[in-house]
């Protein structure tokens, strides 16, 4: 049977002669070439062996395969043990004729003549190949190489196909072990892969990759190997490029997936770093987000950093600032040796140069906005491979618009949140009169809008910048430069993350909103804008609250005025009559004191005089409640609040400990307040009353605060204590006449009178008090004007001059008062005329002309007001004045309109009467 051999069509050996070989081989490629070589050379070998090897048999089929050239026999060649059995097993062949074997031998006998033809055929088959082809004999010597082989390796056929040529000259050092191992395995009879790659080396020592396909053949009757070798430098490069492109595309695809799934900036960067970190080429990666102020970057994600650095930069919100000379630019930057770049190396952490030798910085830029950076680090110094640079730049390019969209989304969401917070704030605080609630809502809205860790609220008052009680637990210090900017109406952002936003009312600074971030981020500009809008809302709310307070105060004052008016209407008539009685008593007593020079009598008269004066003071206090207009006399007086405080301390300090029940600490802050239009005696009376009330409130002693200063064009005086304080129910009634919390020890007139005095001066009095928190009274008074100063100087320079024989007409319906006044004037050197009412006065004037007319206001027939009108018409150049028992409750504007030159209030002192009369008469 056939144990080795092949079925070889004889016609294959003739197709080249028939010029059909190329046509037949073209579709089959290299395998067909190897098969042809193997089988055709095998034919030649067997032909040469036929004369000596009887076991070789050739069986002929005279029928060629379908579709091939006809009349060409098919031969089966191989060693035959029993030819008869072999013939019977070849059932697929037609039965041979009796002369088939003889004819086959005759045909094969002619092959020996074609040996030269075989070499020519082999060369014709291989020289046109684009691959390098070689044949090795069983000893490993080259017996054939084609022209492409010569071109690829730079050796000629004569140099290679000799036993002296060393096969290893064609193998690069890095692949010699591989080739050597294959040879040893083949020698041991092991099957090795017929297709493999190795690094080749040409005659010029150039290394290049090749792939080889080896087949076993018989060449010239001997075992041999044919190899087809191809230079795969370009294909490998293409393959590597394709693999690199695929890797980049996979990375970019995964980054795109991350971008599409996450809208949060930090999440996008962190997941992107996770994707990039899985690629070769870098030892560590860091992603940063651009924050505020410009040049500051916050570490968002990192991979591969040493633990010593991770514990620091991996903390929440770790950021660093890039100095101006190292600002991030739009192009990638490489730092091949960080040891030579200390500034760049130390930006992220001072010890980075100890762990890494090279840095690649790739900015993430959208338009003109830097969104962040990607940073790659290698432990060894040297440039980064182009593939790594391209990959990070591609990722950065893909991230830039995504991060920008994410930032815009967050910015829009924040702005919507800001507007919602402002809308909520407006709904919650506009129209609210509770200042504490307003402050709480402002702080809450500022926290929502800013996202800051701490928010503080300050208000400007007469004592300066004061922290809102609602923000005491989160106080943020305010630097002088920030406060100065805020007073100019400008927001101020400190480098440490403190933002100061002014709260203004018109052009006047009224408060300060302070926010603090441990780390700032992009979008600060929109937050500042929203906070400034919040400050406007806060200012409006506080202004409305102030107007509500003023309205309530005005309503309370109106209510108080109505109550006082009722009291005044009741007391006015009583006071008028009582003053007439006191006038007679006081006047006669003073006249008697001038006439009697006996000590015992004088002492008694002093008692009577003091009682009359005390009675007059009591009546005057009652009359205070009916007088709501500013005191005209006060317009011509000025007071120094600092001096009022000093005088009051001097008059009352000796009683402080006894009155308060414990030691009293004085907190004295005199701010040099400008002079005010008021009577210092009245202000001392008011402050003395306030100090006594403060001492009474501090049962075991405490701190008494007395402060003066100026705010918004007004001078102020503060009297404060840290005593028991007052509940709202008491605080609302403290200015009511006769209301007292001291039982029989109090009259209930002290604060009511004080309130009335300040109100008459054109000022106002406020009170702030809470149970257990003490009480603070603040007096606001109008400052001295220039015309007041001139009038005061003129009055001080005016002194009563000596009188002559001037005549004064006294018109008074009360005989006792008229007789008293006539006697006082006569004792003063004046001549007098008398009348009992207005009509009688006019009758007297028909036949005489006095130098001055004095008239009571309340008289029968024609009262003082009517007489004044007649005098203005009939005796326009005649000076006149009023006598009244109504005290200071009369309308001073009406007095001025009537043209009265003076007002004598009952009861009157002799000195006051003579002094005022002298001033009028002497002009």
Blueprint (SSEs and pairs):
Blueprint: E1 6-9, H1 12-15, H2 21-25, H3 29-49, E2 56-61, E3 74-79, H4 83-89, H5 100-109, H6 115-127, E4 132-137, E5 142-145, H7 147-153, H8 157-160, H9 176-187, E6 195-201, E7 207-219, E8 222-231, H10 233-261, H11 265-277, E9 284-291, E10 296-303, H12 307-313, E11 319-321, E12 333-335, H13 342-345, H14 352-355, E13 358-366, E14 369-378, H15 386-429, H16 435-450, E15 454-461, E16 464-467, H17 480-487, E17 492-493, E18 498-505, E19 508-516, H18 524-595, H19 599-624, H20 632-635, H21 641-652, H22 656-660, E20 664-670, H23 680-697, E21 702-711, E22 714-721, H24 728-731, H25 750-760, E23 764-769, E24 775-782, H26 786-797, E25 807-811, H27 815-827, E26 831-835, H28 838-845, E27 852-856, H29 864-874, E28 880-884, H30 892-898, E29 903-905, H31 910-921
Parallel strand pairs: 20-21, 25-26, 25-27, 27-28, 28-29
Antiparallel strand pairs: 1-3, 2-3, 4-5, 4-8, 6-7, 7-8, 9-10, 9-14, 10-11, 12-13, 13-14, 15-16, 15-19, 17-18, 18-19, 21-22, 22-24, 23-24
Helix pairs in contact: 3-6, 10-11, 10-15, 11-15, 15-16, 15-18, 16-18, 18-19, 18-27, 21-23, 23-25, 28-29
């Amino acid at each position: 049977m056939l144990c080795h051999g092949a079925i070889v069509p004889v016609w294959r050996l003739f197709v080249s002669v028939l010029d059909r070989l190329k046509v037949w081989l073209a579709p089959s490629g290299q395998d067909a070439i190897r098969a042809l070589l193997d089988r055709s050379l095998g034919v030649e070998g067997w032909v040469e062996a036929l004369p000596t090897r009887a076991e070789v048999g050739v069986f002929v089929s005279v029928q060629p395969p379908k579709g091939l050239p006809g009349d060409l026999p098919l031969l089966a060649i191989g060693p035959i043990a029993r030819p008869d059995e072999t013939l019977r097993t070849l059932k697929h062949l037609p039965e041979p004729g009796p002369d088939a074997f003889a004819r086959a031998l005759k045909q094969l006998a002619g092959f020996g003549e074609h040996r030269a033809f075989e070499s020519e055929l082999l060369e014709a088959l291989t020289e046109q190949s684009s691959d390098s082809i070689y044949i090795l004999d069983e000893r490993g010597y080259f017996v054939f190489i084609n022209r492409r082989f010569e071109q690829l390796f730079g050796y000629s056929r004569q140099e290679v196909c000799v036993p002296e040529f060393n096969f290893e000259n064609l193998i690069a050092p890095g692949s010699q072990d591989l080739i050597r191992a294959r040879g040893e395995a083949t020698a041991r009879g092991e099957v090795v892969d017929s297709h493999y790659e190795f690094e080749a080396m040409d005659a010029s020592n150039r290394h290049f990759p090749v792939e080889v396909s080896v087949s076993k053949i018989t060449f010239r009757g001997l075992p041999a190997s044919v190899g087809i070798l191809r230079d795969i430098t370009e294909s490998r490069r293409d393959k590597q490029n394709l693999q690199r492109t695929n890797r980049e595309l996979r990375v970019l695809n995964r980054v795109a997936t991350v971008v599409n799934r996450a809208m949060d900036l930090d999440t996008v960067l962190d997941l992107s770093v996770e994707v990039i970190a899985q690629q070769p080429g870098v030892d560590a990666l860091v992603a940063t987000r651009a924050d505020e102020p410009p040049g500051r970057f916050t570490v968002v994600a990192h991979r591969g950093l040493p633990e010593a650095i991770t514990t620091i930069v991996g903390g929440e919100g770790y950021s660093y600032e890039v100095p101006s000379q190292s600002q991030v630019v739009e192009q990638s930057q490489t730092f091949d040796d960080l040891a030579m770049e200390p500034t760049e190396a130390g930006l992220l952490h001072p010890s980075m140069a100890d762990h890494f030798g090279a840095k690649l910085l790739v900015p993430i830029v959208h338009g003109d906005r830097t969104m962040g950076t990607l940073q790659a680090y290698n432990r060894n110094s040297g440039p980064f491979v182009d593939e790594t640079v391209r990959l990070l730049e591609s990722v950065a390019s893909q991230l830039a618009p995504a991060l920008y969209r994410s930032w815009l989304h967050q910015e829009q969401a924040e702005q919507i949140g800001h507007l919602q917070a402002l809308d909520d704030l407006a709904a919650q605080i506009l129209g609210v009169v509770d200042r504490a609630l307003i402050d709480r809502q402002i702080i809450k809205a500022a926290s929502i809008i800013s996202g800051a860790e701490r928010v503080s609220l300050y208000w400007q008052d007469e004592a300066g910048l004061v922290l809102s009680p609602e923000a005491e637990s989160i106080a943020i210090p305010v630097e002088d430069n920030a406060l100065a900017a805020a007073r100019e109406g400008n927001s101020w952002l400190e480098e440490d993350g403190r933002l100061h936003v002014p709260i203004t009312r018109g052009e006047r600074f009224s408060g300060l909103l302070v926010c603090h971030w441990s780390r700032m981020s992009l979008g600060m500009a929109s937050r500042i804008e929203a906070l400034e809008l919040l400050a406007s809302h806060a200012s409006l709310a506080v202004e409305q609250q102030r107007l509500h307070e003023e309205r309530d105060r005005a309503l309370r004052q109106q209510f108080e005025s109505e109550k006082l008016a009722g009291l005044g209407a009741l007391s006015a008539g009583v006071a008028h009559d009582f003053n007439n009685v006191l006038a007679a008593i006081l006047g006669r007593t003073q006249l008697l004191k001038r006439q009697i020079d006996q000590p015992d009598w004088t002492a008694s008269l002093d008692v009577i005089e003091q009682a009359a004066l005390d009675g007059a003071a009591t009546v005057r206090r009652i009359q205070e409640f009916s007088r709501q207009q500013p005191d005209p006399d006060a317009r011509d007086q000025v007071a120094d609040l600092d001096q009022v405080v000093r005088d009051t301390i001097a008059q009352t300090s000796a009683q402080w400990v006894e009155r308060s029940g414990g030691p009293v600490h004085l907190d004295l802050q005199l701010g040099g307040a400008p002079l005010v239009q008021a009577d210092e005696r009245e202000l001392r009376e008011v402050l003395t009353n306030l100090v006594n009330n403060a001492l009474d409130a501090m049962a075991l002693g405490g701190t008494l605060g007395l402060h003066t200063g100026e705010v918004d064009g007004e001078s102020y005086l503060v009297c404060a204590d840290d005593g028991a304080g007052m509940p709202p129910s008491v605080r609302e009634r403290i200015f009511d006449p006769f209301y007292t919390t001291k039982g029989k020890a109090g009259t209930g007139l002290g604060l009511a009178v004080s309130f009335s005095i300040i109100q008459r001066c054109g000022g106002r009095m406020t009170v702030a008090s809470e149970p257990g928190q003490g009480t603070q009274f603040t007096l606001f008074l109008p400052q001295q004007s220039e015309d007041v100063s001139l009038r005061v100087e003129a009055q001080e320079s005016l002194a009563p001059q000596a009188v002559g024989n001037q005549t004064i007409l006294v018109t008074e319906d009360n005989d006792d008062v008229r007789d008293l006044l006539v006697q006082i004037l006569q004792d003063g050197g004046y001549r007098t005329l008398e009348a009992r009412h207005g009509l009688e006065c006019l009758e007297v004037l028909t036949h005489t002309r006095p130098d001055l007319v004095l008239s009571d206001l309340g008289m029968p027939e024609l009262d003082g007001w009517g007489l004044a009108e007649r005098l203005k018409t009939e005796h326009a150049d005649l000076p006149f004045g009023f006598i009244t028992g109504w005290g200071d409750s009369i309308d001073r504007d009406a007095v001025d309109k009537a043209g009265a030159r003076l007002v004598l209030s009952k009861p009157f002192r002799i000195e006051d009467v003579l002094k005022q009369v002298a001033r009028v008469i002497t002009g």
